[in-house]
Write a structure and sequence with these properties.
The chain is an alpha/beta fold. It folds into 2 domains: 142 residues, Aspartate Aminotransferase, domain 1 (Alpha-Beta Complex), CATH 3.90.1150; 242 residues, 3-Layer(aba) Sandwich (Aspartate Aminotransferase, domain 2), CATH 3.40.640. Helix content is 36%, strand content 18%. It has a 7-stranded mixed beta sheet with strand order 4-10-9-8-7-5-6, sandwiched between helices. A 4-stranded mixed beta sheet has the order 1-2-3-13. Strands 11-12-15-14 form a 4-stranded antiparallel beta sheet, with helices on one face. The radius of gyration is 21 Å and the shape is globular.
């Protein structure tokens, strides 16, 4: 195995590397087996080495991987149609990541603002948000640690508290040049923060009243993760822009920005682009994900199994003094503790389960959507045991 000395040190990596995977399981280079409740940070929606997915991308790699957007890309057109059908949107732009999808959303919002005569159109974002690490998406992210060392940040953003409709309405009273609101339906990196019921509907109503675009970052919540195809569907609203990535390609890099109405017409030839975005391989991967999620009824499965896991965790560790909350939507689950708990990652790994700790105190569980009932029980047992052991440490 190569040495990390030749890599820029942008990650504090765990001392473990993987050789292969199957379903919800990974095997490291020493042959040890782990249940994967990280899924490449909400990416590997179908699990590892899914037979239909492997067959599809192998077949496509043997046909055509890339041609560029200078030509027609039939699979891209098909994917755009499929995603618009399931989201209620009208047009799609494809890039290679969530950050690129959000960059496209930011650009098209500004473009709409300029068309409306605004000199400095601004976008409202929220505290605790995570939208990416490019300069614009880093600025939109509501985390000072992410900003540090990269100033000057990009202008054109106004920040308000998350899950606070009154704060949003107050911005509207100042009649500044606001064009859009960009928000996560559930904040993922901030610790699976679920807003109060009615928050998304309230956002929609305020945006309608003030003529703002409602742009939802569904990069972590989309594709069935929360027990609906998309998290905004829990409140039966329709955004103007949706951004997707992560699980859309099951590990093959692809991001999408979907829009309707004026936002769908904002980007024209020459105004935006991507060399690799929406190439045949990535689009075949995404189409296969859509097929498998639909065929295997994984959206409903995620809703049912996620509720089961939350209930079991509540039963096992909910009453422990160290536990602040157990919360989740579908298979996007967080266990918040009262103190920093990075050690939980190693304790769970020793028990044969891979978990993630985000925002210092939240154990985040993002298993594949086709996790089985027996695997869910293994996950619950390992997480509950790890938290119980951690609670007894100084």
């Amino acid at each position: 195995m190569g040495s990390d000395q030749f890599l820029m040190q942008t990650y504090t990596r765990l001392p473990i590397g993987f050789d292969h995977g199957q379903g919800s399981w990974l095997w490291d280079t020493h042959g040890n087996k782990y249940l994967d409740a990280v899924s490449g940070i909400a990416v590997v929606l179908l699990g590892h080495a899914h037979p239909e997915f492997v067959a599809a991308i192998s077949d496509q790699a043997g046909k055509l991987v890339h041609t560029s957007n200078l030509f027609q890309v039939p699979l891209q057109a098909e994917l755009g149609e499929r995603l618009c059908a399931v989201t209620g949107m009208e047009r799609a732009f494809f890039g290679n990541s969530g950050a690129e999808a959000n960059e496209a959303a930011i650009k098209l919002a500004r473009r709409v603002g300029h068309v409306r005569g605004m000199e400095t159109p601004s976008i409202i974002v929220t505290d605790g948000a995570f939208h990416g690490r490019t300069m614009a998406t880093l600025t939109a992210t509501g985390n000072r640690k992410v900003h540090a060392g990269f100033e000057p940040l990009v202008g054109g953003f106004k920040r308000i508290p998350y899950d606070d409709l009154e704060a949003l309405a107050n911005v509207g009273k100042h009649r500044d040049e606001v064009i859009a609101v960009l928000v996560e339906p559930i904040q993922g990196e901030n610790g699976v923060v679920i807003p109060k019921p009615g928050y998304l509907r309230g956002l929609r109503e305020i945006c309608d009243a003030l003529g703002w675009l409602l742009m939802l970052d569904e990069i972590q919540t989309g594709m069935g993760r929360t027990g609906k195809w998309f998290a905004f569907q829990h409140e039966d609203i329709q955004p103007d822009v949706i951004t997707l990535a992560k699980s859309l390609g099951n590990g093959v890099p692809i991001g999408a920005c979907l829009a309707r109405g004026a936002a769908a017409e904002a980007l024209v030839p020459g105004s935006h682009g991507s060399t690799f975005g929406g190439n045949p391989l990535a689009c075949r991967a995404a189409l296969t994900v859509l097929d498998c999620v639909d065929k295997d009824n994984l959206v409903a499965h995620a809703a049912e199994l996620g509720a089961y896991i939350v209930a079991q965790l509540e039963h096992r560790i909910g009453a422990l003094p160290i536990v602040a909350a157990v919360r989740g939507s579908g298979l996007m689950i967080g266990v918040e503790l009262h103190r920093a708990c990075s050690e939980i990652v190693n304790l769970a790994m020793e028990a044969g389960v891979l978990v993630n700790v985000t925002n210092e105190r939240i154990i985040r569980l993002l298993p594949p959507l086709n996790l089985t009932q027996s695997e869910a029980d293994i996950l619950v047992d390992a997480v509950a045991s790890s938290i119980s052991e951690f609670a007894q440490s100084p």
